[in-house]
């Protein structure tokens, strides 16, 4: 398969142009066509010599994603199911916030982490996405928004897959969408979410980026976390918290801890107290996520009043807490749900 043209930033294009005996400013032209004008065929790059356009078309692809299904929720959430060139399918979501549009991208086809509450992991990991396939999701979302005159403002790497198990391509993805000649998504407008791959949290801290980090915590103690997230057996909670403290020390940036409230499993008052003690004094934000009801996975929702009580307990430990607003509750918006239905594992 040809590499995806969206996987290159300005520097990569400069190298490529150099190899073709072309001046380096051609790189800026290509970036402009790809990311500002968002053309869909190399033929449209009319200020490039014809033979260069042909060489580009021979060397790269511009359409790694085929839309298979688009669901739009009453609240404006848009969920895409894209087909890949090898027949796999992935999901991408546009969420509408007061501050603008956010796109949630997928980094792997499936996932091998095995969190018990997640549909993306049903069927296991198929393969990693290349950076260009991840960037193409943002380009597709921007194309969807173009007729409305709207922009992608923030990007969250929180779709299917564990981005730190596809670390190099994820870093490349960040550098491409952040490129001033490309989509120009500010680093502070990008967040990467991990289930807790400890060595990569440390590596990520050392990248010198201004990108946000979210850690899926989902349990306040080691025993319960191992039950909900098998990765905790590989990287136990104390090691994870050490890596988070290392990140905070090095970057000075606040960490977001994701906590999916699963009825009857991790949503009791005792869990809230334990979580408050664990995070007290840390520069962090806890994002409480009421899980979507998934009967096939025996997931129950936590009642609203109980969520608010959970939040109040955390606040009593001076832990900043938000409750995630639901997006797309009338469509298959839970991570991996649409794809899982398509491939017949849900
Ligand atoms: S929550 Fe994320 S890391 Fe866990 S199984 Fe789902 S996609 Fe993988």
From TrEMBL:
<dbReference type="InterPro" id="IPR027492">
    <property type="entry name" value="RNA_MTrfase_RlmN"/>
</dbReference>
<dbReference type="GO" id="GO:0070040">
    <property type="term" value="F:rRNA (adenine(2503)-C2-)-methyltransferase activity"/>
</dbReference>
<dbReference type="InterPro" id="IPR007197">
    <property type="entry name" value="rSAM"/>
</dbReference>
<dbReference type="Pfam" id="PF04055">
    <property type="entry name" value="Radical_SAM"/>
</dbReference>
<dbReference type="InterPro" id="IPR040072">
    <property type="entry name" value="Methyltransferase_A"/>
</dbReference>
<dbReference type="GO" id="GO:0005737">
    <property type="term" value="C:cytoplasm"/>
</dbReference>
<dbReference type="GO" id="GO:0019843">
    <property type="term" value="F:rRNA binding"/>
</dbReference>
<feature type="binding site">
    <location>
        <position position="111"/>
    </location>
    <ligand>
        <name>[4Fe-4S] cluster</name>
    </ligand>
</feature>
<keyword id="KW-0408">Iron</keyword>
<dbReference type="GO" id="GO:0046872">
    <property type="term" value="F:metal ion binding"/>
</dbReference>
<keyword id="KW-0489">Methyltransferase</keyword>
<feature type="binding site">
    <location>
        <position position="115"/>
    </location>
    <ligand>
        <name>[4Fe-4S] cluster</name>
    </ligand>
</feature>
<feature type="binding site">
    <location>
        <begin position="161"/>
        <end position="162"/>
    </location>
    <ligand>
        <name>S-adenosyl-L-methionine</name>
    </ligand>
</feature>
<dbReference type="GO" id="GO:0002935">
    <property type="term" value="F:tRNA (adenine(37)-C2)-methyltransferase activity"/>
</dbReference>
<keyword id="KW-0411">Iron-sulfur</keyword>
<dbReference type="InterPro" id="IPR048641">
    <property type="entry name" value="RlmN_N"/>
</dbReference>
<feature type="binding site">
    <location>
        <position position="292"/>
    </location>
    <ligand>
        <name>S-adenosyl-L-methionine</name>
    </ligand>
</feature>
<dbReference type="InterPro" id="IPR004383">
    <property type="entry name" value="rRNA_lsu_MTrfase_RlmN/Cfr"/>
</dbReference>
<keyword id="KW-0949">S-adenosyl-L-methionine</keyword>
<keyword id="KW-0819">tRNA processing</keyword>
<keyword id="KW-0963">Cytoplasm</keyword>
<feature type="active site" description="S-methylcysteine intermediate">
    <location>
        <position position="335"/>
    </location>
</feature>
<dbReference type="InterPro" id="IPR013785">
    <property type="entry name" value="Aldolase_TIM"/>
</dbReference>
<comment type="function">
    <text>Specifically methylates position 2 of adenine 2503 in 23S rRNA and position 2 of adenine 37 in tRNAs.</text>
</comment>
<feature type="binding site">
    <location>
        <position position="193"/>
    </location>
    <ligand>
        <name>S-adenosyl-L-methionine</name>
    </ligand>
</feature>
<dbReference type="GO" id="GO:0030488">
    <property type="term" value="P:tRNA methylation"/>
</dbReference>
<keyword id="KW-1015">Disulfide bond</keyword>
<feature type="binding site">
    <location>
        <position position="118"/>
    </location>
    <ligand>
        <name>[4Fe-4S] cluster</name>
    </ligand>
</feature>
<keyword id="KW-0004">4Fe-4S</keyword>
<comment type="similarity">
    <text>Belongs to the radical SAM superfamily. RlmN family.</text>
</comment>
<dbReference type="Pfam" id="PF21016">
    <property type="entry name" value="RlmN_N"/>
</dbReference>
<protein>
    <recommendedName>
        <fullName>Probable dual-specificity RNA methyltransferase RlmN</fullName>
        <ecNumber>2.1.1.192</ecNumber>
    </recommendedName>
</protein>
<keyword id="KW-0698">rRNA processing</keyword>
<keyword id="KW-0808">Transferase</keyword>
<feature type="domain" description="Radical SAM core">
    <location>
        <begin position="97"/>
        <end position="330"/>
    </location>
</feature>
<dbReference type="GO" id="GO:0070475">
    <property type="term" value="P:rRNA base methylation"/>
</dbReference>
<keyword id="KW-0479">Metal-binding</keyword>
<dbReference type="GO" id="GO:0000049">
    <property type="term" value="F:tRNA binding"/>
</dbReference>
<feature type="binding site">
    <location>
        <begin position="216"/>
        <end position="218"/>
    </location>
    <ligand>
        <name>S-adenosyl-L-methionine</name>
    </ligand>
</feature>
<dbReference type="GO" id="GO:0051539">
    <property type="term" value="F:4 iron, 4 sulfur cluster binding"/>
</dbReference>
<feature type="active site" description="Proton acceptor">
    <location>
        <position position="91"/>
    </location>
</feature>
<dbReference type="InterPro" id="IPR058240">
    <property type="entry name" value="rSAM_sf"/>
</dbReference>
């Amino acid at each position: 398969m040809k590499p995806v043209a969206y996987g290159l930033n300005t520097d990569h294009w400069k190298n490529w142009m150099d190899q073709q005996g072309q001046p380096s400013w051609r790189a800026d032209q290509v970036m402009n066509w790809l990311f500002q004008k968002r053309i869909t065929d190399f033929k449209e790059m009319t200020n490039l010599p014809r033979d260069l356009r042909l060489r580009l078309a021979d060397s790269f692809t511009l359409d790694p994603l085929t839309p298979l299904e688009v669901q739009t929720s009453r609240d404006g959430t848009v969920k895409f199911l894209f087909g890949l060139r090898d027949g796999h399918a992935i999901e991408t979501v546009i969420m509408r916030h007061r501050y603008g549009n956010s796109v949630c991208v997928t980094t792997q086809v499936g996932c091998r982490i095995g969190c018990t509450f997640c549909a993306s992991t049903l069927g296991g990991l198929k393969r990693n996405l290349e950076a260009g396939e991840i960037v193409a999701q943002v380009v597709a979302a921007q194309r969807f928004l173009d007729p409305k005159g709207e922009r992608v403002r923030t990007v969250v790497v929180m779709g299917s897959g564990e981005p730190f198990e596809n670390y190099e391509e994820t870093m490349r993805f960040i550098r491409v969408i952040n490129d001033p000649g490309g989509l120009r998504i500010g680093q502070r407008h990008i967040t990467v979410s991990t289930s807790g791959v400890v060595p990569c949290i440390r590596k990520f801290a050392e990248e010198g980026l201004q990108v946000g980090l979210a850690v899926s915590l989902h349990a306040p103690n080691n025993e319960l976390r191992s039950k909900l997230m098998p990765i905790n057996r590989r990287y136990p909670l104390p090691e994870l918290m050490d890596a988070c403290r290392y990140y905070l020390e090095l970057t000075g940036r606040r960490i977001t801890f994701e906590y999916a409230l699963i009825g009857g499993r991790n949503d009791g008052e005792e869990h809230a107290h334990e979580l408050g003690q664990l995070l007290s004094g840390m520069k962090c934000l806890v994002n409480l996520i009421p899980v979507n009801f998934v009967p096939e996975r025996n997931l129950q929702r936590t009642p609203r009043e109980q969520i608010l009580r959970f939040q109040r307990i955390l606040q009593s430990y001076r832990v900043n807490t938000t409750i995630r607003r639901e997006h797309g509750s009338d469509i298959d918006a839970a991570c991996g749900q649409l794809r899982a239905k398509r491939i017949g594992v849900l």
